[in-house]
Specification:
The structure is a homotrimer. By secondary structure, chain A is α/β, with parallel strands linked by helices. Helix content of chain A is 36%, strand content 14%. Chain A is built from eleven helices and nine strands. In chain A, strands 7-6-5-8-9 form a five-stranded parallel sheet. In chain A, strands 2-1-3-4 form a four-stranded parallel sheet, sandwiched between helices. In chain A, strand 5, helix 6 and strand 6 form a beta-alpha-beta unit. The longest helix of chain A is centred in the C-terminal third of the chain and has 21 residues. The radius of gyration of chain A is 19 Å and the shape is globular. The two termini of chain A are 39 Å apart. Chains in contact: A-B, A-C, B-C. Chains A and C meet through strand 2 and helix 3 of A and helix 2 and helix 11 of C.
Amino acid sequence: MQICPPALPGDVQLDEQGRLRHFLDIQGLPRALLTDILDTADSFRGIGDAQVKKVPLLRGRTVVNLFFENSTRTRATFELAAKRLSADVLNLDIGTSSSSKGETLRDTLFNLEAMQADAFVVRHSDSGAAHFIASQVTPHVAIINAGDGRHAHPTQAMLDMLTIRRHKGEFSNLKVAIVGDILHSRVARSQVHALKTLGAGEVRLVAPLTLLPSQVDAMGCRVFTNLRQGLKDVDVVIMLRLQKERMDGALLPSEGEFYRYYGLTRETLAYARPDAVVMHPGPMNRGVEIESAVADGPQSLIMDQVTNGIAVRMAVLSMAVSGQTQKGAA
Amino acid sequence: MQICPPALPGDVQLDEQGRLRHFLDIQGLPRALLTDILDTADSFRGIGDAQVKKVPLLRGRTVVNLFFENSTRTRATFELAAKRLSADVLNLDIGTSSSSKGETLRDTLFNLEAMQADAFVVRHSDSGAAHFIASQVTPHVAIINAGDGRHAHPTQAMLDMLTIRRHKGEFSNLKVAIVGDILHSRVARSQVHALKTLGAGEVRLVAPLTLLPSQVDAMGCRVFTNLRQGLKDVDVVIMLRLQKERMDGALLPSEGEFYRYYGLTRETLAYARPDAVVMHPGPMNRGVEIESAVADGPQSLIMDQVTNGIAVRMAVLSMAVSGQTQKGAA
Amino acid sequence: MQICPPALPGDVQLDEQGRLRHFLDIQGLPRALLTDILDTADSFRGIGDAQVKKVPLLRGRTVVNLFFENSTRTRATFELAAKRLSADVLNLDIGTSSSSKGETLRDTLFNLEAMQADAFVVRHSDSGAAHFIASQVTPHVAIINAGDGRHAHPTQAMLDMLTIRRHKGEFSNLKVAIVGDILHSRVARSQVHALKTLGAGEVRLVAPLTLLPSQVDAMGCRVFTNLRQGLKDVDVVIMLRLQKERMDGALLPSEGEFYRYYGLTRETLAYARPDAVVMHPGPMNRGVEIESAVADGPQSLIMDQVTNGIAVRMAVLSMAVSGQTQKGAA
């Protein structure tokens, strides 16, 4: 795993005026752009509460959900985000499509592009897949990374940032702990880049040694292998999902032992600040990385994250496709 | 099987003003509400015949089809109903979704709710699933039962009622026979409750003893094991699908024998009134429970039932989500 | 294989005023109607380039994609075409639907019709399936053939005609070569009928004897078994996909040998006119029937074909459903 791959040229994701063209990775994006995304998402937050949850920003545009890896939840939130922007949505499950007829990925992409899609939302089990696709398509097609291998999951990171900002305000005042299976987590990698770029006061990684990447020092975070020490006085606790399906037995003695040492419980949460908030990208393994009483408790923002996810995806889609931000560029 | 479970508190399905909040079961709903549904559905019947089959009642609302059990036909009619109300529709096949990642049903529901869905249309193989889900979600999400186990299928029953009323008028004048596999049928159970509530003159159940529920006496219907006697002078014949996939061999000697004793043929239909109408919820087993000449004959309303199904689903969705009825509550 | 089945009565596809009612096969359609389709499609070509890719022609109408055979690409282009006409689209994968409950195809169709669909787009592995369905439904439902067995693929042929006309103008001046697996190709059959009807100067079929239909003489084309001779001085080269999955080993020694004798390479393309254009219906087998340098070269119109495919499908859907053509009949 490369938790810190060589920096990507910023211009892959931005156009000459510095506006969002593709959304592939937090790394390489300037703080002002991340703030723009958060501001734009904030303006969309109200729409979900209204009876008519639609704005006409992407009316007549086509958004293609290109999922090489199954993910009902992420696909659903992107589909809702696109529909609430009034776009037409095409769901393509590429696992069962013409790849079975021997067509190359490049030909599949060219075909989709020729259908005059405006954006592809890409989920793929290979790290770097979204970057590869962005390098292949013509400039008028926006690529949104919906998770690629262990590399990045930038819309997840931004919805986490939106959730933190709405509840805790300025990042510079905050201590944030990311807890759990850092090694296998594209979410953690994107969160670290987002928190660093937005100027978080302190970012901590809390995990057993076997679940920390070997290059963890290069990430510029404080590393803890003891949960209680890692949570001490933090404002935000972000739990990660234990990626059971990606793990071979060697890294972890048992789920029970993981819970005992790294599970977030009422007892361990008490080490954090009394007003600390708790987050989790879902789906949760209750009783493995988090106690139900905490997941459903007053400090949990887990459901709020889902709602913010639609707003962030609306922001990213509208900015990359129409150049529409809070400040109204066109 | 509980053909007559303990009555449910009416307020699960109704709000304080007696308006529809969830649509889970016919049992417990007052006659005036069922009549409201029929009147509202009647007003939507014309829409399907128009070139523009859309009304803006649910524009900007999100309807999630949450199918834990596959049903192309029912899913399609709910999808069309929601789209003709101008809602956005999200189809989720929960069998293949994050439940495989170990998420609990409750977490899946909370997630969908956090996506700010306005209604879940639920199909599940467990009796009571829709009630359980209604007990979990917040009041602003409407749950529509699209069939749960052997318990209820209330939109099917209401489309049958609409079909009867449009062709036969007042229920109090009518003798209605429900014929076939009563034991396994959620449709039959909902039909009995609907016919009773709407004041049908006489409701008959016609089946072999092995396909009658043990508590059949409590249903307040006349029971016949002889088809010809059961059909004598009835105005409406409702055939049930023989649920072959739910039956073990012990209950039924053979399909051929079932057809000989309980199949609706031109000969057996002649026992009913000459202007009797024939209905079937589909999909039909031709030559098992019904003769093709009857299914396609002049007394058959089977295709009309499908068309009425979309109108009834539009009525239930619009009433539960927006409070919109024929009389114009809001 | 019947490459020239008995002519079908024209009135299956046309109404009494000669307007398009179903679109099943090129054969039997008059030249004026094919020209109408091309003119209407041309008027839709601009829409794909606009930001708002929608016209309200089929607003409130329902288009059902009825795919008995999987085809992501064709399904996607029909779905986009219908959505850009503002229709509601229902995707039904009939392989996994109520046919498994023992319902007959006829009952499935009647049910879909009773849902008041305006058009069925049908893909089926059996030749004649779309004709059969058209013979079953009532006149107000339009059937569009999206490929049936080895019989026809008329929208593919018309998108090819649109591509040729936009780049080469009048058909009467053109020599067109169709190269490859003619025997198994519904595309080739429809192309020949379209080119003949539109008055192409010369139509050539180029294939090994084992991949030519036995009745090839009746098709009214010049036949070549030598690629270089077949390409000599042609204006248009249409390569066919090698239908590997339909072929048993006996017809073809090996893919390598096919490429050596019938593959379109820079070297073999040089036999055609210098301004010849190259087309392929996709998905391509690169290095089997076509060299990548040709597929991606300056003479290739392969991506243009995909874009034209949406315009042609919009034309056919709007003409068959609403009677709307370039000339504005209603």
